[in-house]
Design a protein that fits this description.
420 residues; seven-stranded mixed beta sheet; two-stranded antiparallel sheet; 18% strand; SAM-dependent_MTases_sf; Put_SAM_MeTrfase; transmembrane helix; Methyltransferase type 11 domain-containing protein; methyltransferase activity
Length: 420
């Protein structure tokens, strides 16, 4: 079973599975409790021999002796607690970012320093200082983080967005803020909605640094992911028909799904939205959609923004920065296929459930299942939430890589219940 160690106030946290070392901590704590109890028993039962032989001994001397023993016991307990706390931090792998280490960027040290509130303690929250927020895994990537924070204050920021994304993918999220000016790219030719939704985006208005392709023709000739094959082509190909015309039983038509929401779909959240075509089709139907994306192998964020849509540059490991029960619709494609332990998918699903309102729709769109066991595991996980199955289709598609091996996909539209 996993163990969690948190430290509130410095924006850091560590998560590690329990090990034999953590069991050693429990054994040591048990030994400490037994030892202190023996000390206490000894203190309250001990009486010097001379006092027993002397019928005129003074009771207050015994009391004084007991007090001394109790003081020693308290000191021993306090020392043991400090040692145990330090051992637990070391065994669980928890530590804060060491600001005293050499070659650490001065800007990083300045950002991470605690700053006292100018008017003292806040009466509502009890907070006494401002603490910078930084990802829990930044300590593991301290050299890269220091490189990211090495810049000229009030000068131009280095062209290092790919370094920032690398840190994010390593768990260093959120990144510290910087006091420099980001590189600006002229964006001529931008048009207003709704024309901008399907107008081809110019190669010149996006940043190509750190990417293999340097134009959209190159991107459209590659399979970037299961959900992005030619997805930057807004004039030809299947992207112009996606969500409007179904190619298989796993493809749901958008208007049919919206009808299941009884007209109550106004705002949505799209995970793994590629180039933003889902958000574009929703915008045509007066539904505002935020697209969660990273610039993996392509300028997804800039492309989506150029279409007049809302990109959110955030990894799936980050807690979604939205309040509870605010979205009418959550749409997820194969981007939901997170690698690693099942617990990782559980954390993601619970956070999606948190931001979806009661009665809202969860649209699982062609979610790739590598085998039947994974399909069953995903099905069991979904059923734990008690959603109403409005649509549920399991189908097979031929492997696009040319192996001819059929692949299993799950598509579903689920309605979140009202929980009391």
């Amino acid at each position: 079973m996993g163990s969690v160690s948190l430290k509130i106030g410095d924006g850091t946290a560590r998560f590690k599975r329990a090990t034999l070392c953590s069991s050693a901590v429990n054994i040591l704590m048990l030994f400490s409790v037994i030892t202190t109890n023996l000390f206490a028993l000894y203190a309250f039962t001990f009486s010097p021999k001379q006092h027993l032989d002397n019928p005129f001994h003074h009771p207050h001397r015994n009391i004084s002796l007991i007090s001394q023993h109790v003081s020693l016991i308290i000191k021993e307990i306090d020392s043991s607690q400090r040692k145990l706390a330090q051992m637990e931090k070391e065994l669980l792998g928890y530590d804060t970012l060491d600001l005293s280490r050499p070659n650490l960027a001065p800007e990083l040290k300045l950002f991470l320093q605690h700053h006292q509130l100018p008017l003292g303690k806040d009466s509502r929250t009890g907070i006494t200082e401002m603490v910078a927020s930084v990802g829990h895994s930044c300590e593991k990537s301290a050299d890269l983080l220091s490189q990211y924070m090495s810049y000229k204050v009030s000068g131009p920021c280095p062209d290092d967005w790919s370094l920032a994304q690398k840190l994010i993918l390593k768990g260093c999220e959120p990144l510290p803020r910087r006091r420099c000016f980001a590189k600006t790219v002229p964006k001529p030719g931008l048009t207003s909605l709704p024309v901008s939704l399907w107008k081809p985006v110019s190669d010149k208005i996006v940043t190509w640094s750190g990417l293999g392709c340097k134009n959209f023709n190159c991107l459209n000739s590659k399979k970037l992911s299961r959900d992005c094959v030619g997805c930057f082509n807004l004039t030809n190909g299947y992207e112009t028909q996606k969500y409007v015309k179904a190619r298989s039983k796993n493809d749901f038509v958008m208007d049919d799904v919206l009808a299941l929401g009884s007209g109550g779909i106004r705002i949505g959240f799209d995970i793994g939205g590629g180039s933003g075509n889902f958000a574009a089709r929703m915008a045509e139907r007066n539904v505002t959609v935020i697209t969660n994306t990273l610039n993996v192998d392509a300028p997804h964020s800039e492309f989506i923004a150029a279409r007049g849509l809302f990109p959110l540059f955030l990894s799936l490991d980050h807690r979604f920065p939205f309040y509870d029960n605010v979205f009418d619709l959550v749409h997820a494609t194969s981007g939901l296929d997170v690698e690693g332990r099942p617990e990782k998918l559980e954390f993601l699903m619970f956070d999606l459930d948190r931001i979806l309102r009661a009665g809202g729709l969860f649209w699982l769109d062609n979610c790739y299942c590598s085998d039947d066991e994974k399909k069953r595991a995903l099905t069991r996980l979904i059923e734990r939430f008690g959603y109403k199955k409005l649509k549920w289709v399991v189908g097979e598609k031929t492997d696009a890589a040319g192996s001819g091996k059929p692949q299993v996909y799950l598509s579903a539209v689920l309605q979140k219940p009202v929980r009391i």
